[in-house]
Specification:
It is a single chain. This protein is mostly helical and about 130 residues long. It has one domain. It has six helices and no strands. The chain is globular. The mean pLDDT is about 90. Keywords: Membrane, Transmembrane, Transmembrane helix.
Length: about 130
């Protein structure tokens, strides 16, 4: 069981999740109404992650989607660090607080892990994997 991770899948799904902070940055989430908008978009992203893992017959979806969550957390941290000085005039966000860094990464790893559990269970139910 020495399969390599599909980094294209991981990075692609993590990049897809950037739609959520983009919608927030553009003010769309607030226009739709919080917290419903954030929860709804997170559910849609999760469904897409699971569907891609299942339909794409991803090997080890639990590992792939956990890494997807971590990659998304990393992307969000970097984007926040780049955009906050431009938009707010000063560095803000998780990059300024080690506890926030860990929290963002852990939260998104758990998100990916739970999505991976669901994808693995669906694959097993559908007998897609051994």
């Amino acid at each position: 069981m020495k399969e390599k991770l599909n980094w294209s899948l991981i990075i692609g799904l993590a990049a897809l999740a950037l739609v959520r902070p983009l919608m927030s940055l553009l003010g769309w989430l607030e226009k739709i109404g919080q917290p419903t908008a954030s929860i709804s978009i997170s559910i849609v992203i999760t469904i897409i992650w699971i569907a891609v893992a299942v339909l794409g017959r991803a090997e080890r979806p639990l590992i792939h989607l956990t890494f997807t969550g971590l990659a998304y957390g990393g992307f969000a941290i970097v984007i926040s660090a780049i955009l906050s000085p431009i938009l707010d005039g000063e560095l803000r966000g998780p990059i300024t607080n080690p506890f926030a860094l860990v929290s963002v990464l852990a939260t998104n790893a758990i998100w990916g892990f739970l999505a991976g559990l669901a994808a693995a269970a669906i694959q097993k139910k559908l007998k897609i994997t051994d």
